């Protein structure tokens, strides 16, 4: 769908909550399926570089087909600063995906996803730092609640054998911060560049940066079994479905409303972790999830 049409419909002043809810539910299922596939492949020894490359390349192919089919034009008069922003967004996105997949490899699935889900808090903080946007006292309180909840989610739990390693948590948090950098980097470019082109640039950068990494781990690549190829492709398709569904969710309702609906990612990832890997939450983690939900909901509605 053309970016202009999407913008008009998004700004029409009407909210279609059932459609937004349906699309965001599909998005949550897509991302949870992607996360579960990444964890299965990681447990079976699939190289980290292959996971990141597949995620970017499958998205690149599908988004390129959409751009051609919908005849979405590339900006002919985009400023050089816009392209620098897109490259910066692509690099930050690459780091974010790499860190997320590392977290999925070494942490319980729900914990890794919920850490990544905290990126809206870092968007607020980075916007204040780099764009000079004023942070209100209400935003400060909401961010504090969300960060306190994040500490409870990733903090030491019982039994000791299930305590997340400090390094893995740090990498996952780095991924959430990188995702926030990506959102902040393209804020000025979105007025002139179609969203599909922005996503395409992310896929290009991710594929280009991960391809040499794949060559460095070529011995691991050669050990990939045929059954893993189908799972890799399924992971890439699930990620694309999640991304497209999320975009459609923003099309039918205001951003604040859809941001709250995005909380469906938390229960979806928790169900996936419990169903496929027997991973559960402790009492303190439930409290942390509730605090994060409250903080992010307050940020979204404000």
Question: Which SSEs are present, and which pair or pack?
Answer:
Elements: H1 3-10, H2 17-43, H3 48-70, H4 80-106, H5 109-117, H6 119-130, H7 137-154, H8 166-185, H9 195-216, H10 218-221, H11 226-252, H12 255-261, H13 265-277, H14 283-301
Low-confidence stretches: 1-13, 158-163
Query: Can you count the helices?
Result: 14
The portion of residues forming beta strands comes to under 5%
Number of domains: 1
Class per helix and strand makeup: mainly alpha
Radius of gyration: 19 Å
Give the distance, in angstroms, between the N- and C-terminal Cα atoms. 29 Å
| Biggest sheet statistics | none
Q: Give the helix level as a range of percent.
A: over 70%
State the shape: globular
Helix and strand element order: HHHHHHHHHHHHHH
The average pLDDT score comes to 76
Q: Count the E strands.
A: 0
Could you characterize what this model shows?
By secondary structure, the protein is an all-alpha fold. It has one domain. Helix content is 78%, strand content 0%. The chain contains 14 helices and no strands. The longest helix is centred in the first third of the chain and has 27 residues. It is globular.
Provide keyphrases for this structure.
single chain; disordered N terminus; 302 residues; 78% helix; mainly alpha
